[in-house]
Amino acid sequence: MIKIKTITVICFFFLLAACTKPPVTSQKETVDYQWSDDLSRYRPKTQWEKPSEPEITETIANQPLSSERNRSDALNGVLDSIIVRNDSIRMYEGYTLLVYSGNNEIEAGRVRNSLYDLVPEYKAILSYKLPTYFVKVGVFLQQIEAQPLYRRMRKVYPTATIVPELFPLVEDQ
C-alpha cells in the first residue's frame, strides 16, 4: 500500500515536470553604435579672452641674504658631532633565524652541529646570555630574505623563528 502511494507521488512529480514550459533561449540584440545626440545646446557658453603679454622687466641679480642671527657655525658643530657618533657605531640592523633557545648547553651544541650538516652555506652561531643558550643561523638584511631558510628549518625545528638582530659592521681591507 505504501509502495503504491510512493510510486503515485513520484509519477505525479514527473508529470508536473514534463508539463513545464521549455526554457527560452535568449536572442542577441543588435546595438546601433552609430547613433549620436547633439548636446551642444546644453553646454554652458563662456567668453574667453586671450591673455595680454606681460611687460618685460629688468632682471636683478640675486644677492645672498645677510642675517644678524647666523647659526651656521653652531649647526656645523652639531653635524660634525653626529658624524663622529655615527662613525663610532659599528653595528647594523638585520634578521637571523633563531633555531634553538633553552638552558641545555649540550642540546644547543647538538642543534648547532646539525645545522652545519643541514645548511652548510650558512654560519650557525651558538651564543649564551645568562641563563639561556641561543643557536642562530644566517645574516639577512630584510625579513623576506630569511623566508626560504625559515621554511626549510620549520620542517626540522618547528620552533624556529625569524628575529631582529644587530650585526657587527665589517669593513673590507
Order of helices and strands: HHEHEEHE
Main-sheet strand order equals: 2-3-1-4
* Strand segment count: 4
Estimate percent helicity: 25-40%
Radius of gyration: 40 Å
End-to-end Cα distance: 102 Å
Keywords:
173 residues, alpha+beta, 4 helices
What does this structure look like?
This protein is an alpha+beta fold. The chain has a domain at 100-135. Helices cover 34% and strands 20% of the residues. The chain is built from four helices and four strands. The protein has helices at 2-19, 72-88, 105-118, 147-156, and strands spanning 91-102, 124-129, 132-140, 161-168. It has a four-stranded antiparallel sheet with strand order 2-3-1-4. A hairpin with a 2-residue loop joins strand 2 and strand 3 (132-140). The chain is flat and about 100 Å long.
Please write out the topology:
Elements lengths: L1 H18 L52 H17 L2 E12 L2 H14 L5 E6 L2 E9 L6 H10 L4 E8 L5
Antiparallel strand pairs: 1-3, 1-4, 2-3
